[in-house]
Amino acid sequence: MAVGRNDPCPCGSGKKYKRCHGAESVTRRPEVVRANALKAADQELTSHLLRFAKSRYGLEWFDIVLSEYSGGGPEVSEHEMSLAIPWALHFRRDESDTTVASAWAAQHARRATSDQQTVLDAYADAWLSIWEVTRVERGVGTALLDRLTGIERFAQDVSSSSTLDLHDTMLAIVLDLGGVSFFGGAHPQPLPPFAAETVLGHARKLCGVRTRAVRPEKLRDTDLQLDLVDAWNASVDQMLAAPSPIISNTDGDLLSLTTDDFELIAPTAEVVALLARIPGAEEPERENGDIAITFIKPGNATHRGWDNTVMGRAIVGPRSLRVETNSIRRADELRGAIERHLGGMVRFRLRQETNTADVLARASASAASSRGGGVSRESTPPELAAALRSFREKHMRSWVDEEIPLLGGLTPRAAARTPRARQALEVLLKDIERAESRLPADERIDLSWLRPELGLE
Fold it and tell me: Which of 116, 121, 188, 402 has the most CB atoms within 10 Å of its CB?
C-alpha cells in the first residue's frame, strides 16, 4: 500500500514519511535532480559574473547598479538581493546595450559548462513579471500563472513550496530550462490577492493593455522592470504599515475569548436545572462526562439570514462551572444572569481573557506551523475544531447572500452575475481561499461548493 505523506515512515524513525524517506523519494525524481543540477550551475555562474562585472566595470559598479535598481531611494535590503542581483547580471544593460551575462559569454563562452550555457539561454529568454501561485505541492514545488502574459510554469523549488501559499503573488523571474523551471530571482515579499491586484492594475497601464495578454518581449524592457519593482515595493510598504485588523464578533464587540470559572456550592443536578431556565438556554447536552448548555438570542446583528446568535456556553462539571464567551460584554451579561438565577449556588472564582493581539499571534503561529515553519503549537481539541468549522461553514453558506461593501454593496451571488463586479468578487474569493489554505488541516472548511454555487468556474 502507498504510504501517505503525513503517515509514520515505514523505516520506524518516528518521523512523518514526508520528512523522512518521502523527502528522499522526491529528491530522486528526474526533474528534481535536473533542476538541482541547474540551480547549482546558476550559483556558479553568478559568482563568475559578479567577478567579471567588477573587473570590467570597476569596484563601484555594484553600488551604481543598486542605486539604479532602487531609483535612488533607500538602500536595497539584503533579502531583496535575491531579485536585484539576477536583474543586474542578466537584464540591466550598459551603454553598449550589453548585459553582464552577454559580455561574459562573449569572452568566456568556452569556459561555460553545458549546464551554465543552458542557464544563460534561459535568462536570455526570461522576463520579470507578476506570478500567482495556483497550486502548492509541499516539498516539491509550486504551480505558477503569469498574470500578465497568461503563461503557466511549475517551479521545482522545495524551499519556496514550504513558504508560499495558494494565491500568493510573486514579482519574479521564472526560468524555463527544457522540462524544468525554477525561480531565477524573486522579490522576498509575496503579496496577497488584494494588494497584488493593485500592482497588476498599475502594471497593465504601464504595458498599455486592459485585459489582453502582455507579450513577454514587453516585460524584458529594463525601464518597465524598474517601474514594476517600484510599484511592488510601494505596495509592500503600504501593506506592512497597515494597522492590525480589529476583530469583533457579530454584535460588534471587540473579540476577547473569555472564560469565567465558578465553584459549585449546590449539587450539579440542581445547578444544571436552574441554568436551563435562564432565557435563551438550550437543552443540556452531555460532553466528555460534563454537561454543556448553549445560550442564544434571537436574530443576528450582522447576518440577517441567521435565526439566532450564540452568546456563550456553560460547561458544568462535578465541582465547577465554566462559562465561555467571545467578548467581555457577553461574559458580563451571562455572569449577571447566572448570579441572579442561581443565587448562592455558585461562587465566582476567576476570569481569563485572550485579546485580539493574542488571537492574531496564535493564528500566525498556527499558519506557520502548518506550512512547516517550525513554530510549535498545541493542537486544537477535536470538539473545539469541529465547533469552529461548523460555525464558519454556516457563516459561508449565508455569506453568499449578504451585502458586501467590497463588492459595492452587492451580494456575492449578485456580483457573480455582474461583469463589472465579478472581478472584485474573484479577488475576494482568492483572498478567502488563501486564508483557508494557511490554516492547519483540522481547522479548514470545504470551499469546493462556493464557486459552483456562485456560477463561477
Answer: 116
CA distance 295 to 302: 18
| pTM (predicted TM-score) | 0.72
Q: What is the pLDDT of residues 148-203, one digit of tens each?
A: 999 999 999 888 888 999 999 999 999 999 889 999 999 999 999 999 999 999 99
Task: State residue 63's pLDDT score.
Answer: 92
**Helical (H) or strand (E) element with 315:** strand 308-316
Q: Which amino acid is at 321?
A: L
CA 160 – CA 136 distance, rounded (Å): 9
Phi, psi of 264 (to 5 degrees): -80, 130
Beta strands per DSSP E along 169-284: 169-176, 181-186, 257-264
Q: What amino acid is encoded at 20 in this protein?
A: C
Burial of 14 (0-12, 13-18, 19+ CB in 10 A): exposed
DSSP conformation class of 311: E
Strands 320-325 and 346-354: unpaired
> What Å distances lie between residue 215 and 122, 179, 207, 360, CA to CA?
17, 22, 9, 41
* The predicted structure's pLDDT at residue 354: 77
In angstroms, how far is CA 438 from the centroid of its own chain? Answer: 5
Gap between the Cα atoms of 56 and 52, Å rounded: 6
Residue 367, pLDDT > 70, answer: no
Question: What is the pLDDT confidence band of residue 369, given thresholds at 50, 70 and 90?
Answer: very low
CA distances from 407 to 147, 241, 249, 310, 433 (A): 22, 24, 21, 28, 17
Are 25 and 149 a contacting pair, CB within 8 Å?
A: no
Residues 6+ apart with CB under 8 A from 453: 400, 413
**pLDDT-derived band at 6, boundaries 50, 70, 90:** low
Mean pLDDT, rounded, for 427-451: 90
**Which of 321, 318, 323, 314 minimizes the C-alpha distance to 289?**
318
When the pLDDT of each residue in the chain is averaged and rounded to a whole number, the result is 87
Helix, strand, coil percentages in the chain from 3-state DSSP, rounded to 5: 50, 20, 35
The residue-averaged pLDDT of 217-236 equals 96
- pLDDT score for 360: 54
Rama region for 389: left / alpha / beta (φ>0; ψ in -120 to 50; rest):
alpha
Per-residue model confidence (pLDDT) at position 232 = 97
Interval 189-209: pLDDT, tens: 999 999 999 999 999 999 999
**DSSP strand pairing (128-137 vs 320-325):** unpaired
Contacts of 336 (CB under 8 A, 6+ apart): none
